User: Fold this.
Amino acid sequence: MESLYADARVTRTLLRIQRPISREQALELCRAPSDPHGEHRLGAARLVDGRLIALGTVRRRPGRPDVATIGYSILPAFWGQGLGTELASLLVTFARDQLGVGEVRATTLDDHIASARILQKVGFQIHRTGVAEIDSRGDERRVTRWVLRASTPRRD
Assistant:
């Protein structure tokens, strides 16, 4: 977590964490309990050495147990290797198979082309573009909202 969220290239693409955070802040995030009916945090590690290289979240929507939202972050050293697509696909599978949701949603910053491409590869479709969201600093940012319904075919 510290390596991931200490990197400005990662945090500038997020709404919840807008600037690099300290080791103590990263540890605090790790210690916060996941809610089995709300947020699930999943780490992705390399098989060769067990090094954590990415984090994913699956959040159930309050009042909508049939809908979940995914998010993911990958260490920049591993960008461009297809791991984002693999992680997003695994998060969708977890949401559908383990949580039983019929709809999965995601949000990207409008200018985050790489993340948009990942979602397209997994089969997500644009739900709305140019939506105003307030980030963790209180700044307004434009985002695209994505949706993947159970009947949506995956495009590889």
